[in-house]
């Protein structure tokens, strides 16, 4: 089902920009073949690929994961469905991107021993981390720093960064992504 939502969203973003697959590949750094597979719903993109796509299209991450929004709703409720695009990190949307607040919020889960590395997000993006359960290490400027449950970290995410669970227990953390005004609303 999520493959279908992502497939439809990607096609719509590409069409609204009038981009060929080749142009979209240039802008995102994701191969034409892979973009075609995702658009046909044949492939589940990894989280790293999703970030490349949303960065290339200059849209927030949650926008590509969401079915078309019903703007008449004044409240937002997300189901507890866990999304798993690769084996290293699982996540779900807690709040989809809101153009007024310019942020979105995810819950992430890292199994013991797992690492997720992220390349730089769009210029000006800021991330908040709130560790809910277990211990989390965050990599910034090539140094890992350890956060325990209840601890928080806010950092500039327009640089390479990483998330790691070196413990023997699972790690759950919340992640708010703040977008600058320069990014498209949709
Ligand atoms: Mn990130």
Can you offer a commentary on this structure?
It is a single chain. The protein is an alpha+beta fold. It has 2 domains: 2-65, 434 Repressor (Amino-terminal Domain) (Orthogonal Bundle), CATH 1.10.260; 83-178, Sandwich (Jelly Rolls). Helices cover 26% and strands 33% of the residues. The protein contains 5 helices and 10 strands; from the N terminus they run H-H-H-H-H-E-E-E-E-E-E-E-E-E-E. The chain has a 6-stranded antiparallel β-sheet with strand order 1-2-3-10-5-8. Strands 4-9-6-7 form a 4-stranded antiparallel β-sheet, with no helix packed on it. Helix 2 (21-28) crosses helix 4 (47-57). Bound molecules: manganese (II) ion (MN). Manganese (II) ion binds next to loops.
Mean pLDDT: 90
Helix tally?
A: 5
Q: Compute the number of structural domains.
A: 2
Q: In whole angstroms, how far apart are the ends? A: 21 Å
Helix content: 25-40%
Are there runs of 5+ residues with pLDDT below 50, and where? none
Largest sheet geometry: 6 strands, antiparallel
CATH fold category name of the largest domain: Jelly Rolls
Query: What's the total count of β strands?
Result: 10
Question: What is the H-and-E element order?
Answer: HHHHHEEEEEEEEEE
Q: Using the coordinates above, name the CATH class of the largest domain.
A: Mainly Beta
In the sheet with the most strands, the strands line up as 1-2-3-10-5-8
Bound molecules: manganese (II) ion
Structural class: alpha+beta
Overall shape: globular
Q: In the CATH classification, which architecture of the largest domain applies?
A: Sandwich
Q: For this structure, what is the CATH homologous superfamily of the largest domain?
A: Jelly Rolls
Using only CA atoms, what is the Rg?
16 Å
Q: Hey, roughly how much beta strand do the residues contain?
A: 25-35%
């Amino acid at each position: 089902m999520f493959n279908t939502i992502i497939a439809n969203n990607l096609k719509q973003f590409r069409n609204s920009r009038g981009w060929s697959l080749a142009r979209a590949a240039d802008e995102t750094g994701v191969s034409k073949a892979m973009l075609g597979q995702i658009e046909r719903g044949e492939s589940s993109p990894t989280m790293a690929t999703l970030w490349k796509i949303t960065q290339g299209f200059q849209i927030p991450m949650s926008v590509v994961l969401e079915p078309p929004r019903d703007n008449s709703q004044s409240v937002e409720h997300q189901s507890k469905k866990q999304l798993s695009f690769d084996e290293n990190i699982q996540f779900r949307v807690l709040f989809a991107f809101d153009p007024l607040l310019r942020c979105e919020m995810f819950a992430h889960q890292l199994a013991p021993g797992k690492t997720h590395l992220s390349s730089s997000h769009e210029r000006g993006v800021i991330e908040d981390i709130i560790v809910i359960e277990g211990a989390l290490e965050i990599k910034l400027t090539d140094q890992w720093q350890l956060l325990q449950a209840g601890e928080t970290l806010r950092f500039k995410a327009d640089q390479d960064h990483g998330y790691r669970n070196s413990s023997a227990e699972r790690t759950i953390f919340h992640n708010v992504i703040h977008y600058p005004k320069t990014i498209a609303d949709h």
